[in-house]
Amino acid sequence: MTGRGPGTIIGFPHKRTSIFFLSCVSASISGDTGVIHVLESEADLEWPLSKGPNPPYMVLLESSLFTKSIMMKMKNASSRVAGVVVVPKTSPPEFSPHTTCPNENTGVYTETYDHNLAHCNTTVWNPRGNGLSYEEFDFPVFSLKEDNETEVIKQCYFDHNRVVNGSGLQYPLCAMQLFSHMHAVTDTATCMRRSSMDFSTSPVMVCDPLGGYNVCAFIRPYNSTAFGHKENESVVIAAARLDSKAFFLEDSTGAEGSVSGFVTLLAAAQALCEATQEAPRTRNILFAFFHGEVFDYIGSSRMVYDMKNNMFVIDLDNVHSILEIGQVAVRSGTNLFLHSDPVSRRNNTVHDEVTNLVKNLQSSTAGLNFSFVETDFSQPLPPSSFQRFLRARAIPGIVLADHQTDFNNRYYESFYDNAAHLNLTYPSNLSPEEQLEFVTDTAKSLTEVATAVARTLFKQAGGNNSQVNKINADPKTVTQMLYGFLVRSNNSWFQVLGSSLRCVFCLSEPNPPQYYVGVAKSSHQANALTYLVQYLLANLTGTATNLTQSQCKKPDELPNESTYLYSYLWVQGMVPPNSTQRESFCVRTAVRLVKAVSPAFDLGDYVSKEYSTWTKSQWKFIKARIFLVASRDLEMLTLGVGVAVLFTSLLVTYFVSTKADVLFSSVREPNNAAY
Question: What's the confidence (pLDDT) of residue 26?
Fold first, then answer.
């Protein structure tokens, strides 16, 4: 792999080894080796970058020193840097390795839509963004997770490499080798072309498109095989994004960036489902959880493409309005903000519908401890999935967010956007099970937002206003979701709602699930996050049935069941007291997984400016090791002695072979020898 081009993640393998995670890098096929140097301050950079007599160096630094300025200094002296190992510690006041204008070129605000709003000209949404995730480095960058391993490396450094009085210690020195070679080259167009040119029986892919599955559910299900326009049907879309990323992809939790939004929408779906079963509606509601949005709106652009081409169960003409839940967990006061598109609102019909949606939202906060405030009409939408729908046609819509202008999120798309960022703290004397049930202040806040969202959707769908105030989200459900998605996914509640057949791997570790979208797999297998959201939404909005496990697998064989309208999921269930067997059951649900892969790869347009073209490089393995290295002089001496021994042995062998008849001749004994 030689570099990273537009639209290609080259250097993001992120395959878990024992302790390391890899990010945006280039690395040699035989590994990168350097003498370890522990960076204790920015001033220490002088040693590995200029003064140190034993380059290249493998620089170990704590996260407080993992800054754009330090990384760029090492990038500019890459001949003296073999690699960088980052040790995550305390969170800095702010850090965002994303750009200042996320998804700048694939949203609705282009030169042709409104040049005054393009490129974040009026509002810089992420002013803390330093763009570090989009830099290309000629050396590997690893994240070291285990404290014990960190101490081993540091102790090796202090014993052998520590600089004393301006000079290094004597040999041997402690060195590290990182293996992280990837196959992709240049850019998406090149690596996809090279992948397609392999005509062997076992073709080698050098890169894969990013993608996964969206999670979708209609309140009133449609026939999943009947695509295209639905006559006399009007649908309100409630949307949130699933994915996030960080410089080290497997460390991306996106607590504020994505989890706060989709947890709110899940809780709203649960509250709304109970109300809509009792009251008739004039409009349907689609809950849409989009995957791959960080990478130029992969999930939402795919849905819009499918709607335009009659490959989805509704089309764009069926869409009445859109309500999207953005970042809603880091409020600076008692207000949440309603963002709308100033360009589409120049259309009177769209403007009137948006005004009505705003009124429904604001009236839905009655009795709650916050208010919805509309932003300035001249301000564009923040980065959001809604923008992809607006690229196709003018649709009324609102994006909810906790920020009026730029993000409140100080850690946008970084590994610091985690549970601690949302103040998810628990009393120290609580067990994991007690923490799961403990309702945090953040859970209470998001429960109120979910209540307001559910009430608004009920009104938008034509529900009876007299029933609105009966709709309330469940704080226990919200706190359990926050705990499961941000603290410990392997918990009893997730295990109850999960499947023993398809989602065991979702709960294999105590950590939060991975929020990176991953690659589009031909095996039709979604990632752990997608399955968790699918099963949660199914349990929160579906119906438990009396079907057996075999019937749940083949419900079409039963007279009153239909896989055209519903999905059927086998759920593990609870373990009753004094029992070791779970009470499993089958859930009938309208939840479905829908392909979330950029249309550019279906169209073969790998240089598309309309759709995402992000790919990820293939790789063999990722590992690291430390060892002691001798001085150059000793190595040369050892080599010289070895060469001398070699030639000496050759000479001896030659001499012995030429004189073999003399050296190994035997004296013939006389015939009359007596014994």
Answer: 52
Read off the DSSP letter of residue 519: B
* Planar angle of CA 503, 492, 470, nearest 5 degrees: 100
CA–CA separation, 104 vs 108, rounded Å? 9
E strand or H helix at 213: strand 211-218
DSSP 589-601: E-EEEEEEE-HHH
Give the pLDDT confidence score for residue 15 in this predicted structure. 31
Q: In whole angstroms, what separates CA 183 from the centre of its chain?
A: 21
Compute the distance between CA of residue 387 and CA of residue 397 in angstroms, rounded to an integer: 10
Query: Which residues lie across from 596 on neighbouring strands?
Result: 212
Question: Nearest Cα to 321, choosing from 302, 344, 305, 299?
Answer: 344
Range list of H helices, 209-328: 260-276, 298-308
pLDDT < 70 stretches in the chain: 1-29, 166-169, 183-185, 198-204, 277-280, 499-509, 522-524, 666-675
The model's pTM is: 0.90
Check residue 16 and give its pLDDT: 29
How far apart CA 362 and CA 287 sit, in angstroms, is: 21
CA 208 from chain centre, in angstroms, equals 16
What is the rounded CA–CA span in Å between residue 374 and residue 361?
10
E strand spans, 47-130: 57-62, 81-87
Q: What is the C-alpha to C-alpha distance for residues 532 and 263, in angstroms, rounded to an integer?
A: 12
Q: What is the CA radius of gyration of the chain?
A: 30
pLDDT digits (tens, 9 = 90+) for 284-303: 999 999 999 999 999 999 99
Cβ–Cβ under 8 Å, residues 375 and 293 = no
What sign does the CA torsion over 117, 118, 122, 125 have? Answer: positive
Instruction: Give the C-alpha separation, 455 to 568, whole Å.
Output: 28
